[in-house]
Specification:
single chain; globular; alpha/beta; 2 helices; three-stranded parallel sheet; 3 strands; 17% strand
């Protein structure tokens, strides 16, 4: 089995720890989750992703920022793409989308 090429792989790690809605309490531990996972993915003894290939987005300012960040990583990844989201999730809309 061939392991992913770190130079050709990308990771996008998104963590939402603060919420403006009363329906969603803040989740302070999310910041630690994203940071710890980034450290693991960039550790040369483990995954070895270059820092530029491991993008962390703590408390994003808008859904558009998330979409652009993920799209950029997906189009530049020639091997593995890792997407990680930590925070609250809710379904809704016409298709019960997340």
């Amino acid at each position: 089995m061939r392991l992913p090429d770190p130079e050709s792989s990308r990771a996008v790690l998104i963590g939402v720890s603060r919420y403006d809605s009363d329906g969603f309490p803040d989740v302070p531990a999310v910041k630690n989750n994203v940071s710890a996972l980034a450290d693991i993915l960039m550790n040369p003894s483990l995954c070895g992703l270059p820092r530029a290939n491991c993008i962390s987005v703590p408390d994003p300012s808008s859904p558009a920022l998330l979409y652009k960040t993920l799209l950029d990583a997906a189009t530049s990844a020639l091997d593995t793409l890792i997407f990680y989201f930590s925070g609250h999730g809710a379904t809704g809309g016409n298709y019960n989308e997340l």
